[in-house]
């Protein structure tokens, strides 16, 4: 799970230098002859440090994943687990790592643009046209459009679990306290704890809206903030689930998709509140989890949909939401994906690490 992954990576990398320097260009390898429905398999000519790209063409007709071709991008040397992704467009992608680096990818070249003080991990990244928000272990760093030395640092609890940037003067965060977990709000100047005791075992993410509402990714219940206080959303838990089963279902991320919210978590479970009650769209199974979810914007010939990433679930670390349900991608690399971001209807980035290692991985899907 992401919580253990990030802590381990941060501990291993304590003491690394804080250099800011240009880094190597994208040297990705694409395999163009994969058969529909099959992985391209190992590329015998791939350069060291590169994974072979896989053609994601095996989902059913009408599936949202149809046509994506996946490339594993060459990363700067010693890039650790990629735990956060956010961008302003395909030529301005910010990548946060478990050892505190913030990298900028312009579609071709990499630049190491900033590092979290004291080598703490990046927990989340978000932004607007005017500001870049970077959550570290305990502090929110608010930068001008590009990260650098001119930033404001604001303390947010003991360990930040998630960040949702709504606009320049509104962002929501969740963080652990010494003996509790809280919901915090940034108002353009300061950070205030608006709900000090969420009564959750963990806080892993948050989704906020311009109307002041927010939803917390935790465990066993869906806690919502309505602008004045906390509410508990109704959940249609599966028949036969015990109180222990419910308490041990963890939500790791929430995102808005087509006007409602999607939550992903334990066992590859996916829930939606489209009906006003949270219900499973994909039932959890097994021990591998989804870690992150993102909306794929609508294009000229595509409807809005979503992509979920995590540990391999049903053979793939990436699943697409389709009219026929959640469909595994044909991509089957041995990766643990921790973050995902879409620059538009035809491009997706998914970041994480090689399984059982701290070696960073960044996949780019295009169609």
What report would you give on this structure?
- The chain is mainly β and 367 residues long.
- It has helices at residues 2-12, 243-247, and strands at 22-25, 54-56, 68-72, 82-89, 92-97, 101-105, 109-115, 124-127, 132-135, 139-143, 152-155, 159-167, 170-176, 181-186, 191-195, 205-208, 214-217, 222-225, 230-233, 251-257, 260-265, 270-272, 279-282, 290-296, 305-313, 316-322, 325-328, 335-344, 347-354, 360-366.
- Strand 24 (290-296) and strand 25 form a beta hairpin.
- It is globular, with a radius of gyration of 19 Å.
Q: TL;DR?
A:
The protein is mainly β. Helix content is 4%, strand content 46%.
List the helices and strands and how they pair.
Layout (H helix, E strand, L loop, with lengths): L1 H11 L9 E4 L28 E3 L11 E5 L9 E8 L2 E6 L3 E5 L3 E7 L8 E4 L4 E4 L3 E5 L8 E4 L3 E9 L2 E7 L4 E6 L4 E5 L9 E4 L5 E4 L4 E4 L4 E4 L9 H5 L3 E7 L2 E6 L4 E3 L6 E4 L7 E7 L8 E9 L2 E7 L2 E4 L6 E10 L2 E8 L5 E7 L1
Antiparallel strand pairs: 1-7, 2-3, 3-30, 4-5, 5-6, 6-7, 8-9, 9-10, 10-11, 12-13, 13-14, 14-15, 16-17, 17-18, 18-19, 20-21, 21-22, 22-23, 24-25, 25-26, 26-27, 28-29, 29-30
């Amino acid at each position: 799970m992401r919580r253990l992954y990030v802590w381990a990576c941060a501990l291993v990398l304590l003491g690394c230098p804080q250099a800011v320097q240009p880094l190597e260009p994208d040297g990705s390898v694409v395999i163009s002859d994969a058969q529909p429905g099959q992985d391209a398999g190992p590329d015998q000519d791939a350069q060291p440090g590169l994974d072979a790209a896989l053609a994601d063409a095996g989902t059913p007709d009408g599936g949202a994943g149809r046509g994506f071709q996946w490339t594993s991008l060459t990363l700067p040397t010693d890039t650790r687990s990629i735990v956060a992704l956010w961008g302003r467009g395909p030529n301005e992608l910010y990548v946060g790592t478990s050892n505190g680096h913030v990298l900028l990818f312009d579609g071709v070249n990499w630049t190491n643009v900033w590092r979290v003080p004291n080598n703490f991990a990046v927990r989340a990244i978000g932004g607007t046209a005017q500001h870049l928000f970077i959550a570290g272990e305990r502090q929110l760093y608010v930068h001008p459009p590009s990260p650098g030395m001119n930033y404001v640092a604001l303390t947010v609890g003991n360990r930040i679990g998630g960040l949702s940037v709504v606009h320049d003067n509104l962002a929501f965060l969740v963080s652990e306290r010494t003996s509790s977990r809280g919901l915090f709000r940034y108002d353009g100047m300061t950070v205030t704890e608006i709900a000090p005791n969420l009564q959750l075992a963990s806080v892993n993410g948050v989704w906020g809206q311009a109307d002041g509402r927010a939803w917390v990714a935790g465990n066993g219940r869906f806690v919502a903030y309505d602008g004045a206080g906390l509410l508990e959303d109704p959940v249609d838990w599966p028949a036969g689930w015990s109180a222990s089963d419910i308490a041990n279902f963890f939500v790791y991320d929430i995102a808005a998709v087509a006007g409602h919210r999607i939550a992903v978590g334990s066992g590859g479970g996916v829930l939606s509140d489209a009906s006003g009650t949270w219900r499973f769209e994909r039932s959890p199974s097994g021990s591998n989890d989804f870690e992150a979810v993102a909306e794929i914007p609508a294009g000229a010939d595509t409807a809005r949909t979503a992509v979920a990433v995590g540990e391999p679930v049903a053979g793939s670390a990436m699943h697409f939401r389709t009219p026929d349900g959640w469909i595994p991608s044909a991509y089957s690399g041995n990766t643990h994906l921790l973050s995902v971001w879409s620059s538009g209807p035809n491009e997706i980035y998914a970041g994480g690490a090689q399984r059982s290692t701290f070696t960073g991985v960044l996949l780019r899907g295009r169609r």
